[in-house]
TrEMBL record:
Family membership noted in the UniProt record: Belongs to the ROK (NagC/XylR) family.
One Pfam family linked to the record: ROK
PANTHER family: BIFUNCTIONAL UDP-N-ACETYLGLUCOSAMINE 2-EPIMERASE_N-ACETYLMANNOSAMINE KINASE, ROK (REPRESSOR, ORF, KINASE) FAMILY
SUPFAM superfamilies, A to Z: Actin-like ATPase domain
Lineage, uppermost ranks: Bacteria, Bacillati, Bacillota, Bacilli, Lactobacillales
Gene3D superfamilies recorded: 3.30.420.40
CDD domains recorded: ASKHA_ATPase_ROK
Name of the protein in question: ROK family protein
């Protein structure tokens, strides 16, 4: 019996097949192409699952469950993705219904950050922790929270949406309808926008590297500029890190975790981003919260979402079987 995990990201879709010991035996990656709308995205997911099954010379009957992490807010029980700020024309998408029309396997969805949390909690830097927060910094910004060994979901499964904490009055517009949300500043897109705002009237080595084609701009390139001593890139990470620090300080004071794990693609920036963030935490977080908590980079990187989704799907399928017996 095998388990399937899907990480639906704003840039890539990752599908993994795992054996009973949760060793990954197959992985398929495809471009999300979110700008083409939900029907194309769902078709790509189905295509990737079928490709993984065929690559392993399996049938659908060999899959015990499919778990999937989806960005944004959702109705987990009904399998509907209600809202995702980084996807185009994405509203009340019946994602499970659409996928099950093509694949007859039990499938379960959860917020993408929470499935990343399950990955790090079960298999990575969160092992053994009873009070834990995973903050993922990727296309957007979100958090998964464990308090006293229980994952927080909230009344409408939207607990952990720290990316929508307001940090700038009248700041950058967010697709949630508000302005100045933390995720508009601390995320891949937020960091890129901060760079673009600063480079408008200043020179940067990055401009030469890209030949003025800013469609190629990424946090990795800004990191390279930082390492080269480029003043604009240094300021970008200093400012972004300070915003992150206030977010971390609020998380620390609210949830009193033992550990905050920083995950997502932008976490690869490491101390370039975290040094100024930790300084803010040190100066502004409650001392009782600081002494109980450390801040670390995730162990599993972008693998956390795939393996976490697979583990989540297995867990939900087993709960369903137990409920049927009761």
């Amino acid at each position: 019996m095998y388990y399937c995990g899907i990480d639906l990201g704003g840039t890539n879709i990752k599908v993994g097949i795992f054996d009973q010991e949760f060793n990954q035996v197959c992985e398929i990656r495809k471009k999300t192409n979110e700008h083409l709308g939900p029907k194309v995205v769902i078709f790509t997911i189905v295509e990737a699952i079928h490709q993984a099954i065929h690559t392993m010379e399996l049938s659908e009957k060999d899959l015990y469950s499919i778990g999937m992490g989806v960005p944004g807010i959702m109705d987990i029980e009904k399998g509907i993705s209600i809202f995702s700020p980084n996807f185009t024309d994405w509203s009340d998408v019946p994602i499970i219904q659409e996928i099950k029309a093509h694949i007859d396997v039990p499938i379960f969805i959860d917020n993408d950050v929470r499935v990343n949390l399950y990955g790090e909690w079960f298999f990575g830097k969160g092992k053994g922790k009873e009070n834990l927060v995973l903050l993922t910094i990727g296309t957007g910004l979100g958090a998964g929270v464990v308090v006293n060994n229980q994952v927080l979901y909230g009344a409408k499964n939207s607990a952990g949406e720290v990316g929508h904490m307001n940090v700038v009055i009248g700041g950058r517009e967010c697709k949630c309808g508000s302005k100045g949300c933390l995720g508009r500043y601390v995320s891949a897109r937020g960091i890129q926008r901060t760079f673009m705002e600063k480079v408008e009237h200043r020179e940067s080595i990055v401009t030469k590297w890209l030949n003025d084609d800013y469609s190629l701009l990424t946090p990795e390139i800004i990191s390279k500029g930082f390492d080269s001593g480029d003043a604009v890139c240094v300021e970008v990470f200093q400012e972004s890190g300070e915003f992150l620090g206030y977010g971390l300080k609020n998380i620390m004071n609210l949830f009193n975790p033992e550990r905050i794990i920083i995950g997502g693609g932008v976490s690869k920036a490491g101390d370039r981003l975290l040094n100024s963030a930790k300084e803010i935490v040190s100066n502004h977080a409650l001392k009782v919260s600081q002494t109980a908590c450390d801040i670390v980079i995730g162990e599993l990187s972008d693998f956390a979402g795939v393996i976490g989704a697979a583990a989540y799907g297995k867990m939900k399928a087993e709960q369903g079987e137990l409920n049927e017996l009761i």
